[in-house]
Amino acid sequence: MHVAILIGHFPPGSFGGAEIQAEGWAKRLSDRHRVTVITRRDPADQPEREERDGFTVVRLPVSRVPLWRTFADVAAIEAAVRALRPKPDVLLCFQTFVSGLAGVRAGRALGIPAMVWIRGEAEYRLGDSRVHGFVSPRVWSGASAVLVQSEQNRVDLLHELERHAPGRLAALREKLGVIGNGLDLPEGPLGAGTRVTSVGRLIADKGMDVVIDAARVAGLPLTIAGDGPERAALEARAAGHDVRFAGFVSRAALDGLMRDTSVAVLAARRGEGLPNVLLEAMAYGRPVVATPCAGTRDLLVDGVNGLVIAPDDRVALAAALKRLAADPALAARLGAQARRTAERFAWDAVRPALEAALEKAAGRGSAR
After folding, report:
1. Domain CATH code at residue 46
2. N or C: which end of the chain has fewer CB atoms below 10 A?
3. What DSSP state is assigned to residue 261?
C-alpha cells in the first residue's frame, strides 16, 4: 500500500505533537508500505525532497501572503499528490485545515480515499470560527474516514456537530474512529528527578502562567520547555524564582529533560487532543498533574495514575505540587500507574488499529 501523509509542518524544525506523531507513523509504516510525506518547505532552506528512515519527504513552497496562502497550499498539495508514482492508495491527512481540506479535494479529483485525523479540540470547536464552522464539517463529510485521538474527543466532536451541523451528524458518526497516539517507552532505571516540568508552546491556552505561579507558591524549581509569543511575558512573571526556560527541546534532548523531572504539569485551558507531552512523562513513570482537557479525561483517573485540577486554579495546582513533594510514596505510586497507562500506547500496541483503518479506507474508495 502507498500511504501519502499530508501535514503542514514536519521535523526537523519547530514542531508539536501532531508533527511528532506524523514522523513516528511515517517511520513505522514504511517497514511494510511505501510512505510519502507531503509538507511545507518551512524554513525555506529545507530540501525540496529527501529520502530518510525508509520514507520520502516532499516539501512545497510556502506563500507569505496570508489570504492567498491557503489557496496556494491546496493547489500545491493537489499537484504534488497528482505527481506521485505509484498513485497513493490512501491519503492520511493530519489536521482538518489545511491538510484535510487539501487531501479531500485532491482525493476527490484523483479518486484516492482521504482519511482526516483530527489532532485537537480546537479543530472541532465549530462555534469559535465561522470559517471553520463552515469548512470543517464539509471536509469531514468528504473524507472516507475521520479519526480522533480519544473517546472524549469523539463525544465532544459529535456534540459540536449536533449543535452546529446536525445534518452531517449521522453520516460522520458511521465513519468516525478513535486511535490514540503512538509512544516510545524508555527502558532502564529512571531514578528520581528534581524539577517540576511543563512542556508546550508558550501561548495562553497552555496555562504556563498558572504553572509559574503555582511552582512559586509551592517553593519548587520549575523547567518550562517550549517557545512561543508569550515567552517574554512569562520570563518576566517568573523573575525571582528558580524557573529555567529551556526553549524548544529536540527529541534527542527530551530524555534528559524527563529524567530530571519530579512531576510533570499540563495546565492547559483548552486546545488539547490526546496530549503527547503528558503521555511522554507518563512513559517515564513520572507523576503528572493535569487539567481535564479533552483527551486528558480518557488518560487520567484522579488519585490513581495522576492528579486532576481545574483550569486556571493556581491554588489547587500549588497544593497538588506540595502534596507530591511531601509524599514520595504517593508520587511513586502515581508514577508507576502512569507508566502502566502509557504502555497501552506503545507504537506496536496502537499500530494494528491504524493499519486496519488505512486498509479499510483504501478498499472502500473515496466518499462523494
Report:
1. 3.40.50.2000
2. C
3. E
